[in-house]
Design a protein that fits this description.
2 domains; 37% helix; 10 strands; 5-stranded parallel sheet; Rossmann fold; 3-stranded parallel sheet; alpha/beta
């Protein structure tokens, strides 16, 4: 059985475990659950996971939606199954109304990218529309927080962060931020946009450049090993995917889109599995329940020490 640390990112395995009736993940997921939404411009659904061509016949791969399933099959994966995003196992689609709070989530970078931040245009835009909302909160990715949080705070905005990739409560916290917000703004299409739509937010995207990356910013060894993703990464950050595939999301605060079904489609809600199915796919058999209880007791004891 091959395991991937990516399965634990953002609390994904914990969410799945609790959905299946476990307190903690009973053991590692048997296979790879893609940990983020795959942009249509990305050529490979597993580019970020170090999967080699020779692994494609044997690896159990779990993707989110129909497009990713077709792309994985076309790439030669023989054991690929669409099961939806971890977010659909955290909550059902949310149609509730809420107060006029705005959550702003700028495009995030990753630690391996050297980005040149440009926040003036985003702050100018927020200053123009902030009076239309009860509150405006900026949610930053952990890798960008040290650089950007002071800038947005000095401009008078509340700044939050849901944690880093290894924070098992990441998606739980992000869901709370979304449930507290009626409106959601980003400058590009990304995973958080689909979370916001699925959670019932009214979404509007403004293609405002908050960072610049180029070939010189992609010097990390990972990009040398996976050169096929360099050009798409740059194009995505420039908003080319947004304009090509999701232009209907580009709108202002007076005409946001509220489309829970669109969020559900991109997050693969149609492929959501019942607990018994998910346990079978992940290799979490009956003996795993006992192991989960033991691990839960051990973790509880550690917390008390």
């Amino acid at each position: 059985m091959r395991t991937f640390e990516d399965n634990d990112y953002y609390g994904h395995s914990l969410i799945a475990a609790r959905y299946c009736g476990f307190k903690v993940p009973p053991k590692s997921i048997d296979g790879l659950w893609v940990h983020g939404w795959i942009d249509p411009l990305m050529p490979d659904v597993t580019a970020a996971n170090g999967v080699k061509d020779e692994d494609k016949k044997s690896l159990k791969l779990f993707v989110w939606n129909r497009r990713e399933l077709a792309k994985a099959r076309a790439a030669g994966f023989e054991k690929v199954t669409a099961i939806g995003s971890p977010f659909v196992y955290l909550t059902e689609p949310d149609f509730a109304e809420r107060t006029r709070n705005l959550l702003v989530m700028p495009t995030h970078t990753i630690p391996t990218i050297e980005a040149r931040y440009k926040t003036d245009d985003m702050i100018d835009y927020l200053n123009q529309i902030r009076s239309c909302f009860n509150s405006v909160t900026v949610c930053l990715y952990y890798a960008d927080y040290p650089s950007l949080a002071p800038i947005f705070a000095r401009a008078g905005y509340k700044v939050v962060c849901a944690g880093d990739v290894k924070d098992s409560k990441f998606l739980y916290k992000l869901y709370v931020f979304l449930r507290q917000s009626e409106f959601f703004l980003s400058n590009n299409v990304m995973t958080g946009v689909w979370y916001a739509l699925y959670a019932g937010c009214k979404v509007f995207l403004q293609p405002i450049n908050v960072m610049e990356i180029g070939q010189d910013g992609l010097k990390d060894n990972w990009y040398k090993v996976n050169p096929i993703v360099v050009d798409p990464t740059i194009k995505i950050h420039r908003g080319e995917s947004l304009r090509a595939f999701f232009p209907h999301l580009i709108r202002d605060h007076t005409n946001p889109i509220k489309d829970v079904n669109l969020g559900a489609r991109e997050l693969g809600y149609a492929f959501k599995r019942r607990p018994e199915e998910l346990k079978l796919l992940f290799g979490w058999n009956k003996s795993a329940l006992f192991l989960s209880k033991v691990l839960s007791i051990i973790q509880g004891d550690k917390q008390r020490c």
